[in-house]
Amino acid sequence: MKSEYDIIVVGAGPAGSTAARYAAQKGASVLLLEKDRDVGYPVRCGEAVSHEGVAQFIEPDPKWIAGTITKMKFISPSNTSVTMPIDSNIGYVLERRIFDYELAKIAATNGAEVVTKAYVYDLIKNENGEAVGVKALIKDEKVEIKCKVVIAADGVESRVGKWAGIDTTCHIRDMESCAQVTVSGLNFEEDTLDLYFGKKVSPGGYLWVFPKGKTSANIGVGVTVEEAKKKSAILYLNEFLEKNYPNASILTRIAGGVPCAKPNKVLVKNRVMLVGDAGHQVNPISGGGIISGMIGGMLAAEVAADSIKNQNLKQLSEYETKFHSRLGWRHEVFASIKNAIWGISDETFDSLTLSTLELPMEKRTLAAIFRKALWNKPSMVLEVAKVFLK
Amino acid sequence: MATPHLMIHIVPDKCDFCGCCVGVCPEDAIELKESEIAIIEERCTNCKKCVWACPWDVIEFHRDGINTLPKKLFAIDENQFSKSLSK
């Protein structure tokens, strides 16, 4: 390890490793720091992605794919289920442990230096308050490493952004408090993602059963922190398991938070760039953040490497515009739709499911359901329109 | 403003170190290492958001303060926190 790099990336999840990879590819010297001992572990994720999302970064490989998905099944509060094909594509349930490892390996192959058990506890700042390095505990030894740009990929618990003066706190209305188990020894429809909705199952979120092959699945639930005041995620999950999978063997239990908010307005400040969960780069409806985080990582890295090459760090702010036009604007729309959807009562949800059932399988798309929802709750149009009128 | 008595207690042996509490903390008052977690007492305002956020229900709120309970904090560098506060 050197004492100075062009770019230091904090966090070796998909966003961080992707940032490190593209920055190194562009010729920057890159250090990728991971606080845990292993890249990819512990996994805090439902692990579902779309084929086209992942394939733009890495050739799908059976070694990190646990299952291939073609259908989604929505289960309404009154237990009516409606199955529909996944819009125009297939999806995967990943083995994040191996997937993340692979992404870090690609970053390293491209020239980034990866160090694990490296906990960043502060920034080194210049007289203008700009980040010019990080202070870290590496294998329990204090070190200071200098750099020109810090890319913060430090997840939902991001503090690097806060130290640079960016408000990264997630509002309790938007934070999904999640608990998940990986179960085995049962039979699952291996090509179908199950999504359960309803105030009794997962208020302000949903409960998922994502099959990892025929006999295993990730079963998890997310509830908004506002709702979790009354009852926490683990209790919802336990109730569901007792009722639906009483004999499941539980192989792992994990918890986690998902920032289902609009993407952070400020993504760049004082030479710190936020990517992934740290920048709230999560689809606010699905809670999926793997691909959007990787896109954020790639865009940030390219802008950072160019800015360093041009010796003009003012250029870093271009990342905000680039992310917004690529993905951010969509997430803003989704966030408004989400707020409207969660306002729907269980009864409306049930009637929506029933009316979707009337559609033939091939016509069941999210857009069709959304149109039905609009019909049931016209105020949603206003919510969405507000985004465009801003 | 931080209140004089810390009322939040994280039960370290039950914690999964998932970071959900850190994500909702408006005061940057929770420190999370690989498998160590600590509340930075000087910053905590006892707002309880971390208590609600915890998926595992392992963050407790004690109205009378936690001085009566065994306290186990792992702050990596206590000077670090007071330094950054005085900035």
What are its keywords?
heterodimer, A: 390 residues, alpha/beta, FAD/NAD(P)-binding domain, D-Amino Acid Oxidase, Chain A, domain 2, 3 domains, 6-stranded mixed β-sheet, B: 87 residues, two-stranded antiparallel ribbon, 3 helices
Description:
The complex is a heterodimer of chains A (390) and B (87). Chain A is 33% helix and 26% strand. Chain A contains eleven helices and 19 strands. Chain A has helices at 14-25, 51-55, 96-109, 160-163, 225-228, 233-244, 290-309, 318-341, 346-357, 366-376, 379-389; strands at residues 7-10, 30-33, 48-50, 65-69, 71-75, 81-85, 91-94, 113-115, 118-125, 131-138, 141-146, 149-152, 175-184, 192-196, 207-211, 217-224, 249-259, 268-269, 272-274. In chain A, helix 1 runs parallel beside helix 3 (96-109), helix 7 runs antiparallel to helix 8 (318-341) and helix 9 (346-357) crosses helix 10. The longest helix of chain A is centred in the last third of the chain and has 24 residues, at 318-341. Chain A is globular. In chain A, 51% of the residues are buried. Chain B starts with 7 loop residues before the first strand and ends with a helix. Chain B is of the alpha+beta class and 87 residues long. Residues 69-76 and 81-87 of chain B have low confidence and may be disordered. Chain B has a single domain, classed as Alpha-Beta Plaits (2-Layer Sandwich). In chain B, the strands form two sheets. Chain B has a two-stranded antiparallel sheet. The chains are: A alpha/beta (390), B alpha+beta (87).
